[in-house]
Amino acid sequence: MIREPQTTIPARIARLLRSARAPFVALTHPPVVTSQEAREVRGVWADGAIALKALVVRVKPKAGEVFLAMVVVPGEARFRSSALRRHFAAREVRFIDEEALREATGGVPRGGVPPLGSVLWGMPLVADASLRDAQRVVFNAGDRSASIILRREDWERIAEPVWVERLCANEGASEGA
Asked: What is the pLDDT of residue 171?
């Protein structure tokens, strides 16, 4: 597989947002892995912004080839694999392991995946419909030490998510992949 010259994912995202004329704030902070840690280090810069969590899953459809997809949910939420299976008419939906994630994203670690898989890596991108109510969003920018804050409508225009109702589990319940 031919890869483009190595450029940091945060730099690629900044170029992408500038070329799309989407105003944004780029934050550098200590490395984070969990949504809780991210909320704490982002502090007042992200006040009022909804954190986006991007997950990469392997989808095994009832018919057709297996493919990777990106799921975007609010930072503290867990997604419902049943909703994703229905959406993709899939037999199975599974998280991919760290090695497969890094291969699919050009080296991005778990906890650093930006919700731009459709643009950066050509993955189908589905998002929980509740995110449409957000004014601003904040997300990891391809590195556990970098975050981006921008208007939700700019993220939507660039990422072009397919909105899925009830993609998140209710009240902290977990149905995992």
From this structure: 42
Domain 9-164 architecture: Alpha-Beta Complex (3.90)
pLDDT digits (tens, 9 = 90+) for 85-106: 999 999 999 999 999 999 999 9
Query: According to the model, what pLDDT value does residue 136 have?
Result: 95
Q: What is the pTM of this model?
A: 0.88
Domain ranges of the chain: 9-164
How many angstroms separate the Cα of 66 from the Cα of each of 19, 35, 57, 97, 99?
32, 29, 10, 15, 18
Put residue 129 in one of left, alpha, beta given phi > 0 → left and psi -120 to 50 → alpha: alpha
Q: Decide: 29 and 147 in contact? Cβ < 8 Å.
A: yes
Take residue 95 and report the two structure tokens written for it: 């998280």
What span, in angstroms and rounded, lies between the C-alpha atoms of 35 and 74?
9
